[in-house]
Specification:
Blueprint lengths: L2 H26 L1 H18 L3 H12 L3 H35 L10 H10 L4 H10 L1 E6 L9 H17 L6 H19 L11 H35 L10 E5 L13 H29 L15 H23 L18 H17 L3 H18 L5 E7 H14 L10 H13 L13 H15 L5 E7 L4 H13 L7 E6 L2 H15 L2 H6 L3 E7 L1 H7 L1 H22 L2 E7 L11 H6 L9 E6 L3 H6 L2 H20 L7 H22 L5 H8 L2 H5 L22 H11 L3 H4 L2 H6 L3 H10 L1 H16 L2 H11 L5 H22 L9 H30 L3 H18 L4
Helix pairs in contact: 1-2, 1-4, 1-8, 2-3, 2-4, 2-35, 3-35, 4-7, 4-35, 4-36, 5-9, 5-24, 7-8, 9-10, 9-13, 9-24, 10-11, 10-13, 10-16, 11-12, 12-13, 14-16, 14-17, 15-17, 18-21, 20-21, 21-25, 31-32, 32-34, 33-34, 33-35, 35-36
């Protein structure tokens, strides 16, 4: 980003900062404003290299009363949130600038740039069209365990983004400019006066409603615009329009269906979540149908329509009545927690065809009567929405741990006097499962003595049987390790009376399971019953979180790459279509990072026009929070998937594989020696980071640990593991072990790998981004205040490793400074640092006081600082 293109962003950030300052003066008084300005001046000076000013800053904040320091932290947190809005808006502005200038080169990753490049590299127009038309990308939203910002504030930030867009208009009159500025002041003041601390932990249904909000806010409007852009690009570059029924982008969700380790997600929650999605869909369709009725006032139509004065309005009136009844019947069912059980949909719209058919009749009639230009406006957008969203808006996956299915079947086998399913070896389990799958008699007796967990698991399967099939997506098995784990779910679906079984998706996530994934699937595909049951298609999920927590990011990346290669080979040999489902998080340590870079780095043959991936935590807002951002996100997922399908990277050289394996082994040894094998490490982790305190605040419905509050790193969920290190800005999980890996490598070979191997280049560039965000000085401050003297040597060693890793990465990139080639990100980090530093200093002091004498005021203060640091770091969990 050049200085010229950067200036509008700087102007926006400066304006928002000025308006925030005015709000502080008016709402809190000159004393707070002066203190904020003093802190900001010291923080900037400290960042400029004046170590004395950093010490003065730390002393000022650490010795202040909480009542004085907290408003300062709040002020900086609000500024960072406003800066985020400005940056998001600037991304939209840059995209528009690319599209506004006919002489400019197309924006990287855009339809025009990628389609032009693919054709220049020999891809025929027909192949481009057929692959685009057949594309299947599904984005799966998950709950917000690291989204600490309340939905109320997110709505205010969205309005601020809209106002910045209005301010960009060149035709605004002076009174209109004043109106925009006044509106910005109102939103900023309102945000300041809003309590950012949730007083109650959100329930799973709260999270469901938050997930649906993003559809109402942006995705509903962005999807037809995205498809229009794709249609235009295909007409231009391939000579054919996008087929009417094409749905290259679809949406799934885990919110309300992911029960892995979350006892709060019950069968009733899943049933209600599905109804809430249908309610939102009916409500959104109603708005569009009402608008269409106003638009389609033509007095005549084709023979497909009724012979009345305004035939289109007559058809749409009937559609409207059905939608109203659908919405009302769902509202009745939602009045009780188990109302979903009795909702039969009688008289309501259930099947997508019931909505599609009358709309298609109108579309054909308009074309037949010479009104195609009208047909291909709002009506076409609505048809495309139906193909993408259906009547459910989003399809809910169900996820549960393989061990829970084993426990349920073990209880059944013991009850029936068959022995212990849990104690059987794999061949005996398979024999039992296949026998029962083939049997026509029921396995489960009417009366079955079960524990609470087993009853709930059985209730989940019975809920799946009762919920309309279109509301549900896949059944994902966490910690899948053997074919019997998949067959167990198949049997439980059969025994629960599920007429249209959910597709079963094994999730391989630990290093050991990833290494066995291809062999496990090969053995599963060798079972005749299963091979016939899947109909030539299989989805496999790979997990980035636990694999990274297991052996570190670099080793996990290599294991994931190899697992995908091997899985692609197994399914290619078997003639079964494979869809890989990527369980990515927001942080680099959980597989996060720039979308195009991540997809381009996948092994050749592993994408093949099909991609499923999770969109997690704060990344939902980052990628879909503004309409223009949502549009760009959908475009990039599409072009990156097509690029990886039609122009996959070459397989790596054998010598690079060997080098990568050596680096992976060195990295994993270093990581595991500290994280898993150093007895004092867990004590250090809990002292130096706010891991314990994060588990106690109201930022998600799921417990931070599997199996209760005690246990080691293995029991800790990957998200709080990452989140805790992000708060202290050491970002340990994303880089630990990289120093050992690069020290074990040949420098010349590594540089060649950087130039020619997309996977390796992507891995190193993501580590570089993390290192640029990490701050040894801030992490040291936490140690000084919070860590017992006998544990501080661990922190000293980690910070030394961090600095060593920076030197090694700079050595192989050939740059003098991290992110030297990425001006936009480098500047963003540099601008944020002086504002995040004071919040860190305040948080460390609050943690010290909280641990000495806990009270509710300090806990609320901690949440405020966690919010601010998350805003400053962007990708937190």
């Amino acid at each position: 980003m050049s200085e010229a293109t950067d200036k509008p962003l700087r102007d926006d950030v400066h304006l928002l900062g000025e308006l925030l300052g005015r709000s502080l003066r008016e709402q809190e008084g000159e004393a707070l404003f002066d203190l904020v300005e003093r802190v900001r001046s010291l923080a900037k000076s400290g960042r400029a290299g004046n170590a004395g000013d950093f010490d003065r800053l730390a002393a000022l904040l650490a010795t202040s009363a909480t009542s004085e320091a907290l408003p300062v932290a709040r002020a900086f947190a609000h500024f960072l949130s406003l800066a985020n809005v400005a940056e998001q808006h600037h991304r939209v502005r840059r995209r528009r600038n690319y599209q506004r200038d006919p002489d400019a080169r197309p924006q990287p990753g855009s339809f025009d740039e990628v389609f032009t490049r693919l054709k220049a590299n020999g891809i025929a127009a027909g192949d481009l069209f057929s692959n685009a038309a057949a594309l299947r990308v599904e984005l799966v939203l998950t709950a917000h365990p690291t989204e600490v910002v309340r939905r109320t504030l997110l709505q205010k930030y969205a309005r601020i983004g809209e106002l910045l867009a209005q301010r960009d208009r060149t035709d605004l009159t002076i009174p209109e400019q004043h109106e925009v500025l006044d509106a910005l002041r109102r939103e900023i003041t309102s945000a300041w006066e809003t309590d950012e601390v949730r007083q109650e932990r959100p329930t799973p249904l709260d999270e469901v409603k938050g997930g649906l909000f993003i559809f109402e806010q942006t995705l509903w409007h962005a999807l037809p615009r995205y498809l229009r852009a794709l249609d235009h690009a295909l007409r231009t570059h391939a000579g054919q329009p996008l087929p009417l029924d094409a749905a290259p982008m679809r949406f799934g969700s885990w919110i309300g269906g992911d029960r892995d380790g979350n006892p709060n997600v019950t069968a009733d929650v899943t049933g209600q979540a599905c109804l809430l999605g249908r309610w939102m869909a009916a409500d959104l369709y109603l708005r569009e149908v009402d608008a269409l009725r106003a638009e389609l006032s033509m007095h005549s139509g084709s023979d497909e329509l009724p012979p009345v004065k305004e035939p289109y309005r007559a058809v749409l009136r009937d559609v409207r009545v059905s939608l109203l009844h659908t919405r009302a019947s769902i509202e009745d069912a939602l009045r009780t927690s188990d109302g979903w059980k009795t909702w039969s949909g009688s008289g309501a719209l259930i099947d997508d065809r019931e909505l599609l058919d009358p709309l298609l009749r109108c579309h054909r009639s308009l074309h037949d009567t010479g009104n195609g230009i009208v047909a291909d406006g709002r009506l076409l957008d609505l048809l495309r929405r139906v193909h993408a969203f259906g009547l459910t808006l989003v399809r809910l996956d169900v996820r549960q741990d393989a061990a829970r299915h084993t426990a349920l079947l073990d209880a059944v086998s013991r009850e029936l006097g068959m022995g212990s399913f849990a104690e059987w070896d794999e061949p005996r389990r398979q024999e039992f499962l296949l026998r029962e799958l083939a049997s026509r008699r029921p396995l489960l007796p009417r009366e079955l003595s079960l524990g609470h967990a087993e009853r709930e698991d059985l209730a989940t399967f019975r809920a799946i049987a009762a919920i309309p099939r279109a509301s549900l997506g896949a059944y994902v098995i966490t910690m899948a390790a053997a074919p019997s784990d998949v067959l167990a779910v198949a049997l439980l679906q059969k025994e629960s009376g599920i007429r249209e079984p959910l597709r079963i998706v094994p999730l391989f996530e630990t290093i050991a399971d990833l290494r066995r994934a291809a062999e496990t699937m090969k053995n599963l595909l060798a079972i005749d019953w299963y091979r016939k049951a899947i109909g030539g298609k299989q989805e496999v999920m790979i997990g980035y979180s636990d694999s990274s927590k297991d052996s570190g990011r670099l080793a996990a990346a290599w294991e994931l790459f190899q697992a995908q290669e091997q899985l692609a080979g197994v399914f290619s040999d078997s003639g079964v279509e494979l869809t890989l489902f990527h369980g990515r998080g927001g942080s680099v340590g959980r597989g996060g990072g720039p979308t195009y870079l991540a997809i381009a780095a996948q092994p050749p043959g592993s994408v093949a026009g099909r991609l499923r991936t999770t969109i997690q935590g704060e990344m939902i807002q980052a990628e879909f929070g503004l309409p223009g951002i949502a549009l760009r996100t959908l475009e990039v997922y599409t072009t990156a998937t097509l690029d990886a399908t039609l122009a996959p990277p070459r397989p790596p050289r054998d010598e690079w594989r060997a080098a990568m394996q050596r680096m992976s082994d060195s990295s994993a040894r270093t990581y595991r020696a500290l994280v898993h094998e150093t007895p004092r490490f867990l004590d250090y982790f809990r002292a130096a980071t706010p891991e314990v305190e994060l588990g106690a605040i109201n930022i998600g419905s799921r417990p931070a640990r599997r199996g209760g509050p005690t246990g080691g790193v293995d029991s800790l969920r990957a998200i709080p593991w990452q989140f805790a290190w992000t708060q202290t800005r050491l970002l340990l999980p994303s880089w630990l072990g990289v120093d050992a890996a690069l020290e074990a490598a040949d420098a010349a070979e590594v540089k060649a790998m950087m130039r020619e191997w997309p996977f390796f280049r992507s891995t190193v560039e993501l580590v570089e981004m993390v290192l640029a965000k990490a701050e040894a000085r801030i992490a040291e401050w936490y140690d000084r205040l919070l860590v017992p003297a006998e544990l501080r040597d661990i922190g000293d060693d980690l910070r030394a490793r961090l600095l060593r890793t920076v030197d090694l990465v700079l050595g192989i990139t050939g740059r003098e400074r991290l992110l030297e080639n990425n001006h936009a990100l480098r500047r963003s980090i540099d601008v944020r640092n002086p504002y995040v530093d004071p919040i860190n200093i305040v948080q460390a002091e609050i943690l010290r006081r909280l641990r000495e004498k806990p009270d509710d005021a300090l806990r609320d203060a901690f949440v405020t600082t966690a919010n601010g640091i998350a805003a400053g770091m962007r990708n937190t969990g």
